[in-house]
Specification:
This protein is α+β, with helices and mostly antiparallel strands. The protein has a single domain, classed as Gcn5-related N-acetyltransferase (GNAT) (Aminopeptidase, 3-Layer(aba) Sandwich). Helices cover 29% and strands 28% of the residues. The chain has a 7-stranded mixed sheet with strand order 1-2-3-4-5-7-6, with helices on both faces. β4, α3 and β5 form a beta-alpha-beta unit. The protein is globular. The termini are far apart.
């Protein structure tokens, strides 16, 4: 099992991710899954990455950006036929590697309040849920993982 992560900052790459994943990823954390919204996220400073498996099938889309020394992260869910393969753990490791590359002090991950699979995953990777939802509707929660400073 090995995932490949690719930057999708060009319109053609964004469209490829959108078209391949439209049915599976329609409940992304804080926006509607459509091409205009994806482009807006990128324009607002989020980096978009696609994730492919060994068969080169897109299995997820990731967003991240550095803000106030924290790496902010969110991702689509995995397609149902890829759940349980360890891909979510690889995605968490990717975010941690990115955070270290960018010298972030912490990682903040956002997910829907009803995404209990993500709750378990976040806890297993050392994240702690903050007390209150971060959006007006109360549907998005924030998880924080402090990163150890190198001595």
């Amino acid at each position: 099992m090995s995932l490949k992560f690719f930057s999708a900052d060009k319109p053609k790459e964004m469209k490829k991710i959108y078209e391949y994943t439209i049915d599976a990823f329609s409940d992304s954390p804080d926006f509607n899954w459509n091409l205009d919204e994806i482009k807006r996220e990128v324009k607002d400073g989020w980096s978009l990455f696609g994730v492919t498996n060994e068969e080169e099938e897109i299995v997820a889309a990731l967003f991240f950006r550095l803000k106030n020394n924290s790496l902010l992260t969110k991702n689509t869910g995995l397609k149902i036929n890829h759940q349980g393969a360890g891909y979510s753990h690889e995605i968490k490791n990717f975010f941690e590697t990115k955070a270290k590359e960018l010298k972030a002090n912490s990682i903040k991950h956002y997910c829907r309040i009803d995404n209990f699979r993500m709750y378990s995953l976040n806890e297993s990777h050392g994240y702690k849920k903050t007390p209150s939802p971060v959006d007006e509707e109360g549907q998005i929660v924030e998880w924080v993982k402090p990163l150890k400073a190198k001595l």
